[in-house]
Amino acid sequence: MKKTVTAESIQRLIAKNRVGALAVAFERGHPSVIAEGLAPEPVEEVARLLEKIDREKRIDIFSYLPDEVQVDLAARMPDRELVGLLEDLSHDERADLVEELPEDRRDAALAQLKPEERADIERLKGYPEGTVGAVMTSDFVSLPADSTARGALAHLRRTASGAETIYYSYVLDGDRRIQGVVTLKDLVLAPGDQPVAELMNPDVMTVRARQSAEEAVNLLQQLDLIALPVLDRNGLMVGIVTHDDLHDVAEEASTEDFHRLGGAAGLIHTPLRSASLPQLIAKRLPWLMVLVFMNIFSGAGIAYFEDTIAAAVSLVFFLPLLIDSGGNAGSQSATLMVRALATGDVRMRDWFRLLRREVGVALVLGLCMGAGVAFIGAFRAGPDIAVVVSLTMVTTVLAGSLIGMSLPFLLTRLKLDPATASAPLITSLADISGVMIYFSVARWLLGV
Hints:
Blueprint: H1 7-15, H2 19-28, H3 31-38, H4 43-50, H5 55-64, H6 67-76, H7 79-88, H8 91-100, H9 103-112, H10 115-125, H11 132-135, E1 141-144, H12 149-159, E2 168-172, E3 178-183, H13 184-189, H14 196-199, E4 207-208, H15 213-223, E5 227-231, E6 237-242, H16 243-261, H17 277-294, H18 296-304, H19 306-311, H20 315-343, H21 351-381, H22 383-413, H23 423-446
Parallel strand pairs: 1-2, 4-5
Antiparallel strand pairs: 2-3, 5-6
């Protein structure tokens, strides 16, 4: 039984310099697995190993390598080899690669490409990052409206070898306006002389080239399609955006949201294992410094209630427990709301309905937690402190939950990224409110 080729097995073979076994692994392994195994190696070693692989598979492996490795490899290639690479890559991938190349290498390579390929690269490079146009490909199959099923299949055999996907063929008029879409299955099963105009579905969902790529992600997921046609500002078809392109967009957006929620925005384009110490410090320090000064308000609140603390020192024992509970509840609410806003599960108009529901949920959570902490309070400091602690628990959990739920909506209303409502920020706000609530309740109930 043949062993499965894994990234780890490739790395072990490289470490032992098992040339013969590597050749077998490169032949049998999937390009994505081989790329994962090669990526940690020095770029000179990656280039040497890729030379041992046949051209077609080498291009596939190259496509799966991390962006920074691709750029390093391309920058080291002779001009002729670089031009050949750009000719073989898919249209969207080569546009991205050209954009990242050093200027002298980029100009030299573009000068040697065919005019139509050079124009295609320049057109794809012209779309702003984060838009559909920046991730689309111009590799798509189009058919004239007067085709028959037999003629369409013959056209596919002649022209579609380099297309991103051939499952959908788009029927265009002479001005490249989309008339409909026909699937490969329909073409194969239809009588040869049946007109494509009868087979096509004229109700085609499209996206605009300058539309947000994240909006296209949501649409593609909602419709469960393989690809969406992309139109320019004049309504002419200029490309398609496929599920794998948008998968990368969705993954990047999710990663960015998680980074923001952790208060470490800005690392999205840097793999964590290759991020340098200065990069990690630079991306994490600003939020932490802001939060340091925000937490001064917590200290000021404690100082304001010095007399209350002096009268009932046992209150200090419960302070971390109570304010952390409020922060934890707030972080939970914020995480749920940020994700729901990002996926379109909730809209701004849902805020009041969700607020009422969050009040109910937070009260139940607070009452359960308050009941638990009341026993500790009674055992540790007596019934009076137990009442203070349990009532504070209910109130701080309610306050933290409402802060965590509402802040993402507020940021959305201000046209800001709701993921900026990071867990550290929510925790700090909940800490400040928790201190004020705790000692205000203690002063009121204990009569200090």
